[in-house]
Amino acid sequence: MRYFAKLQGQKEAVPVDIEPAGENRFKLTHNGKTFLVDALALDHGAVSMLVDGTSYSVEFDEQGDEVQVSVRGQVTRIDVADERRLRLRAATAGFSVEGKQVISAPMPGKVVKVLVKQGDEVKEGQGLVVIEAMKMENELKSPKAGKVVELPAKEGTAVEINAKLVVVE
Amino acid sequence: MRYFAKLQGQKEAVPVDIEPAGENRFKLTHNGKTFLVDALALDHGAVSMLVDGTSYSVEFDEQGDEVQVSVRGQVTRIDVADERRLRLRAATAGFSVEGKQVISAPMPGKVVKVLVKQGDEVKEGQGLVVIEAMKMENELKSPKAGKVVELPAKEGTAVEINAKLVVVE
Amino acid sequence: MAKIRKILVANRGEIAVRVMRTCKELGIATVAVYSEADRSALHVRTADQAFLVGPPPSRESYLVQERILEAAKKAGADAIHPGYGFLSENASFVRACEKAGITFIGPPASAMDAMGEKTRARQNMIKAGVPVVPGTAEPIATVEEARAYAEKIGVPVMLKAAGGGGGKGMRKVERMEDFESSWRAAKSEAMNAFGNDAVYIEKYLEKPHHVEIQVFADQYGNTIHLNERECSAQRRHQKVVEETPSPILTPELRAKMGEVAVKAAKAVGYVGAGTVEFLVDVHRNFYFLEMNTRLQVEHPVTEWVTGLDLVAWQIKVAEGEKLPYTEAPTPNGHSIEVRVYAEDPARNFMPSPGRINYLRVPGGPYLRDDSGVFPGYTVPNTYDPMISKLSVWAPTRREAIERAKRALAEYVVKGITTNVRYLKGILSHPEFVEGDYDTSFLTREHETLLGKGEDPQLTEASLLASVVYAYQRDQKKAKTLTQAPSEGGKGGISAWRLASRRGR
Amino acid sequence: MAKIRKILVANRGEIAVRVMRTCKELGIATVAVYSEADRSALHVRTADQAFLVGPPPSRESYLVQERILEAAKKAGADAIHPGYGFLSENASFVRACEKAGITFIGPPASAMDAMGEKTRARQNMIKAGVPVVPGTAEPIATVEEARAYAEKIGVPVMLKAAGGGGGKGMRKVERMEDFESSWRAAKSEAMNAFGNDAVYIEKYLEKPHHVEIQVFADQYGNTIHLNERECSAQRRHQKVVEETPSPILTPELRAKMGEVAVKAAKAVGYVGAGTVEFLVDVHRNFYFLEMNTRLQVEHPVTEWVTGLDLVAWQIKVAEGEKLPYTEAPTPNGHSIEVRVYAEDPARNFMPSPGRINYLRVPGGPYLRDDSGVFPGYTVPNTYDPMISKLSVWAPTRREAIERAKRALAEYVVKGITTNVRYLKGILSHPEFVEGDYDTSFLTREHETLLGKGEDPQLTEASLLASVVYAYQRDQKKAKTLTQAPSEGGKGGISAWRLASRRGR
């Protein structure tokens, strides 16, 4: 079976083929190389993986919209899909970074300042909204140059995690 | 609503009345006394309970056939049922300790010795079967005087937790 | 010399739990107070009694003196331990405790008055002959005056809250253009943190080290110091890593600073645990910065190298016992503390409150985890993001660094983002390892500390593991779907996402 | 003096993890071996590499020398750390390592030969002028001979496995009627544990204390002792609580026993970490019992009061370094270790393997948890039931006891039964607190230690909480039932049971 894995910061998802090869064992082919992997899924999103005798204690953690993968202190953000879903996502732009950008609350908190108005032209990296949580103020910046097309954020209101604050197009 | 709570070692279940009294608050009546309890259920079977300002960090743990309740280092085994279930259990003798007694494996292990034969008369406290687990041998004793009416235990075999080993009647 | 039998801990989080641990060991009953946001908190569960003191904002709960005292009376507590922050440096609260006949575990109100307002403290220290950082002697009333003063002494300057410490209400101004916004930010933070928006100005020393001396005094005028802590690893004036001994102190400088710290404490009639903070410049001149009239977050490193329990000492001093030592014990070995924050260093240290789905703390020799959380706990977004302090001990600094790195590698927190990896970055940085890092270190080396460098072998392992994980979950899901076709409706959610939700 | 770069740890559980922790701090790569029952074990996840060595029974995996050596070669390990138990005291394995060119971290085979068979050890010690417990000089061939000897010296006698320690293959015989069954049991346990069923007989001393001396020797004949450990809190000859200093030792007796222990080690050309065990009778005479030619389970208490890392020392000595000290450091403060077992003291210490659903280990000052488990781990039923060791330090014994009790109160393990409450019972018992407890203490005071006494207030709180818990879950279930009527079919299961399953 073929999966596509996309590392954060990379444009393209890379194909990885996987076949079962016995109890907790898998044959994986990636980038022309084939690996025989002994991968035991443990509770709470942990996987003990042995590749050619090398031991990797892997921890998966989903937070908000991301899956973080930790191995020996290195944290990588990886998205994985099979072929059908890859097509699906391509269609809905889920796998892409182009188009409309929704800026949502990265944590529960309070909107202490809205720095733009509906219809404003903004530059990439320009501050849009300031959220306060845990006594710290955090400025959310525009991921791209564009125009503020939606602005649900209101100063002084409490917001939940992932609440839509600004849409830049 | 009325519940019946039975402490291990006690013959009778005692009635306790409970009524909701606001968020995480309950009015409980037990033994003629009424308590206003602030009880917050946490994950993993923990309850933070405040009664008149006294704080009890309660931990529930179900193991095999029992629910253990720990508060400040004291462990109590308690069974709770509502009225309908209490009647039900009385009918099926679930709440009683009389009648047929099934001796089952208290842990996964290996049957290293069977000390009785089918049809044997046994005394209360007489050894029936020896199980080995974690390098320790453990003798299971008869909970009552009676006769061995079933004997599924076989020497040298591995058994799972709760596997039926002997029935004494 | 009345024995204390019940202590109300007027705090939350790790410090409340830490104080209660010592109380338990001493056979003293404990009382917690909590806000509505903290009903599920560990300190409520740890205490023998617990009382609600108000809604989430500190100003309406943990900072309301009457509510705290009311809880103390209801519980029959004979003493209050304030922890750090909140009311710990509030002289009016000390007076209110006195009036209510409850022992305040800390210095007398007079010592707090003398040291609490930083500007007054500076004046007192100048009088006592303690060297201070050049700056204004008083809080400044208006932004115009402040601006004028800053222009006079020249940037960079530090704006500082007169009413409290801990990095709150503090701003460094490097360019006059930023003066007004920094002024406003400092005042607003100060008001939030201490209920007092007075701000004063100090000259900013270049490349200073933050070195502080732990002092202890009993009620009979015996005052000693317990050596120093090096706290130069700061970010936004918030300490991140602390250690003792300081790698830059010679025994002579230690003795000199200790002596001055004791002099400072004696000058204000100090009693209990306190910390005299100094800035040490490149020429190893040192200047009084402020005195924290309470227990510090970083007290565990001092405990590690002295074998003492500072909280137990605080209680004994409050009971009227004499100090058991007459001079500083020689530090034994080396200790390092790192602060674990619920924040994401890669996103400008954005706070990360939320539910801790899984938690595994490090174990093994010579390490200590002081935590205010537990698996299944939801870290509220109302308070400080520090969730735990990890400290280690070893015979030498080099070994302590390796031990701390090993311990951090064992830390697993899921559900929220923490700075654990960033902390490892600090401990691995050559400047830290070498030992001569000043307060600009963390800001200056920010990019390096984030550790963007990836090990391709680990990246590949992560990728393979992710595919196996997705595959196994898809297989499991396929099985479930066959058994329960009604779930097919959820096809819209990516299997990956769904899978990892189930993995919890 | 070749630096060791990669160590295979020929063990499992907490000790494998503990050794790897030190390796990590020293920058040494680690290799785990595991049986089929241990695929999910913590030591496999902690190591850099891991190799399967066979099916669950130790005799087919952890005790198979060729498999261990094969894994070491495959991994390119240059040294093997044996931990305790398994192959740690097997001289033939040491020789096999030598032959394979792999450093064995432990004493030379010759020292093991001299001390490994306990009967040979006794002969060697008598030669060296070390006092020994009266008994046979050789293992006894037949049960008849054994019986005759026991009759001659008179019961009580101890039957002991010649091939190993740790309480395995050991039986006390009080009445001659029990002699034969005890003999068989000792031989069979010995065979299981050490692959050697040789058993000998010792006179049983009345009310003896078990006090052992930690020794350390480098490759150059420098041999020192690191003071004693009191290990009289034993059950079935298995240590449960250990402490240092021993509450019954005077400085003079400590010095005398230390001297004898060093003499014993020197007599056999010892190298590395070892422990000389003594029985101390009511008159404070002491007798050599045996020498454990390896690291002990209870080494953390020695580490606490000396500040050393004994595993690091073992590695350095194996690399050819000299000992950094020439005599025993004066013990600093007091340390107590308790062993957390997966067993139910209320049911005759029945083992309790199974899944650990929830785990919260204690934190705060001066405590240490050495664990081989994690939340979500299933403790297999194949091996020793010890899942963790909790140790504490304090300036005095009294404070150490209170700290250990406080720490135990914080320990939460769900899914399996542990002896945590029983351990608290030991620490609270007046005989333990007073300090003069002998090896009969735990057996003699068994009923008291189980702590049958209940606090009615806590019983009432438990009852109320249980009803709330049942009620809340029933309410939740009722809601679910309304939403998904198909679940109604499960009505046969009690709501309580069902509820708590969901609570996980």
UniProtKB/TrEMBL annotation, chains A, B:
<dbReference type="Pfam" id="PF00364">
    <property type="entry name" value="Biotin_lipoyl"/>
</dbReference>
<dbReference type="InterPro" id="IPR000089">
    <property type="entry name" value="Biotin_lipoyl"/>
</dbReference>
<feature type="domain" description="Lipoyl-binding">
    <location>
        <begin position="90"/>
        <end position="169"/>
    </location>
</feature>
<protein>
    <submittedName>
        <fullName>Carboxylesterase</fullName>
    </submittedName>
</protein>
<dbReference type="InterPro" id="IPR011053">
    <property type="entry name" value="Single_hybrid_motif"/>
</dbReference>
<dbReference type="InterPro" id="IPR050709">
    <property type="entry name" value="Biotin_Carboxyl_Carrier/Decarb"/>
</dbReference>
<dbReference type="InterPro" id="IPR001882">
    <property type="entry name" value="Biotin_BS"/>
</dbReference>
<keyword id="KW-0092">Biotin</keyword>
UniProtKB/TrEMBL annotation, chains C, D:
<protein>
    <submittedName>
        <fullName>Pyruvate carboxylase subunit A</fullName>
        <ecNumber>6.4.1.1</ecNumber>
    </submittedName>
</protein>
<dbReference type="Pfam" id="PF02786">
    <property type="entry name" value="CPSase_L_D2"/>
</dbReference>
<dbReference type="InterPro" id="IPR050856">
    <property type="entry name" value="Biotin_carboxylase_complex"/>
</dbReference>
<feature type="region of interest" description="Disordered">
    <location>
        <begin position="480"/>
        <end position="504"/>
    </location>
</feature>
<dbReference type="InterPro" id="IPR004549">
    <property type="entry name" value="Acetyl_CoA_COase_biotin_COase"/>
</dbReference>
<dbReference type="InterPro" id="IPR011764">
    <property type="entry name" value="Biotin_carboxylation_dom"/>
</dbReference>
<dbReference type="InterPro" id="IPR005482">
    <property type="entry name" value="Biotin_COase_C"/>
</dbReference>
<keyword id="KW-0436">Ligase</keyword>
<dbReference type="GO" id="GO:0005524">
    <property type="term" value="F:ATP binding"/>
</dbReference>
<keyword id="KW-0479">Metal-binding</keyword>
<dbReference type="Pfam" id="PF02785">
    <property type="entry name" value="Biotin_carb_C"/>
</dbReference>
<feature type="domain" description="Biotin carboxylation">
    <location>
        <begin position="3"/>
        <end position="447"/>
    </location>
</feature>
<dbReference type="InterPro" id="IPR005481">
    <property type="entry name" value="BC-like_N"/>
</dbReference>
<keyword id="KW-0460">Magnesium</keyword>
<dbReference type="InterPro" id="IPR016185">
    <property type="entry name" value="PreATP-grasp_dom_sf"/>
</dbReference>
<keyword id="KW-0092">Biotin</keyword>
<keyword id="KW-0547">Nucleotide-binding</keyword>
<dbReference type="GO" id="GO:0004736">
    <property type="term" value="F:pyruvate carboxylase activity"/>
</dbReference>
<dbReference type="GO" id="GO:0046872">
    <property type="term" value="F:metal ion binding"/>
</dbReference>
<keyword id="KW-0670">Pyruvate</keyword>
<dbReference type="InterPro" id="IPR011054">
    <property type="entry name" value="Rudment_hybrid_motif"/>
</dbReference>
<feature type="domain" description="ATP-grasp">
    <location>
        <begin position="122"/>
        <end position="319"/>
    </location>
</feature>
